[in-house]
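Lecture 7 notes: from sequence to structure.

We start with a single chain of 113 residues. Read the sequence below before looking at the structure.
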Amino acid sequence: MMVSKGDIWLVNLNPIKKNNEMGKVRPVVVFQNDVLNHSDYPTTMIIPLSTSLVDDTQPIRYRINKRDKLSENSDIVITQIRAIDNGRFIEKLGTLTMDEIQVVKELFAEITQ
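Now the structure, written as tokens:
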């Protein structure tokens, strides 16, 4: 299994450690660069998606439309970025466009300034 930046994957985020962390089996976006993704590095930086849509929440969330095997419109919950063990990946669901990846990068930069 090889993941790439911008891929949308189904992963198992359980168990969670705190109530305000996103858990469950859910889609995520791979946010780590491909130098690490395509190496033997054991973890990957991801951003979870949510189908509980909340309007007008940028820069905290970014809405993407369903595509490929991602069956519902979803919000990328940028404040929930985390590293996961590579064993948590289950199935590739799709890929963000280059423009969407750029927007996510800009929103991440905005909330970390």
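The helical segments are 34-37, 98-111. Keep this in mind for problem set 3.
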